[in-house]
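so my prof wants the structure for this chain in the tokens format not the other one, which i didnt know existed until like an hour ago. anyway here's the sequence
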Amino acid sequence: MSVSRIALGAFLLSLATPAFAADDIIIGAIYPLTGNGAQVGLDAKAAYEVEADIINGTHPKIPMLMGEGGGLKNLGGAHIKLVFADSQGDPQKARAEAERLITQEHVVAIVGSYTSATAATISQVTDRYEIPYMSADNSSPSLNQRGLKWFFRTSPHDEMFSAAMFGFFKDIGAKTGKPVKSVALFYEDSIFGTDSSNVQRKLAGAAGLTVAADIKYRANSPSLSSEAQRLKAADADVILPSSYTSDALSIVRSMNEIAYKPKAIVAQAAGFQESGFLTGAGPLAEGILSRSSFAGDAIKARPAIVPVQELFKAKQNKSLNDNTSREITALQILADAINRSGTGKPADIRTALIATDVKGIDTIMPWVGVKFDETGQNIEGTPVIQQVKDGTYVTVWPFDVATTDAVWMK
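here's what i got, hopefully its the right format
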């Protein structure tokens, strides 16, 4: 399905009509809107605004859950109102903003927050105040293992993502005759990096792979030259980086400066999936692989991708990526639960979230679906592996949903 230019224009015009304040269901969104992660936060803001516009607006039906527009039907057509807060990427700032959104803005739920470190503090606050927290794009496995009752995560976490990576290694090795024998772990010193590396170390051991290098570095380091030298010396079959955008750019540039071209890089998404990385790295990004929640090229299986992609491009002049697609889906699932709650009250929203059972075809994601376990984790989020080709990520695994073959260990 596609949205014509006329229909898209009419849709965007219709969104200019403001909602009545009495109808608003207020949801807080906490992201880094200033500082090193500002662009990620601004892209997230645009993604949430697109999904809120789809839910609230009057427009041709988009073939996905909450795609008919017109507001929340079970709440008399109430509209979603988003209130954004700036975490600056600081966990303590995120904690304070969560409290402010709850006590002063009177939000019924909070979504966020890009970094797992900020999600850890936000979710503590929301549990204390008994407000649902929808973790949209935080991947640390430990987040849903703390006994919290108000935490929900639509996206896969790093154990699920890493399992997909090692499943890919097995399949691509069998297909090409080039098996992975060694890996190099490269990760920042945050909850994201530490949890990711712990999982990968365990999976490497279970698969009988040699960990040729285990490199922990300080996030936002001014230079990663020495780390690049260590990676070159290890010369593993695959480098497994867990890094945000500035560090992702720094390590590929540092490796290039010493004329080191790894056999393969398979990233834990994060900064490697950002448009800022693809633009900044240019040709250095070619051939890099990454796990992903999103397969933007899977338009036959997920027809809603096309119209949603057009709306996001109209707002942000860029394509959806692993992060922004997860943000759209998180608000979609949260809004559906609010609608099914019948009241918009936090306790009823939580009950509705627990009962969520959404099929993948009703989203833009390549997942089996969305169904939460007792910890609030979606157990039907199925990752894919993508590779940069001609400056764009394309899906290469699982092979039955791939749109092209992977270029492997050349």
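also thought this was worth mentioning. The radius of gyration is 21 Å.
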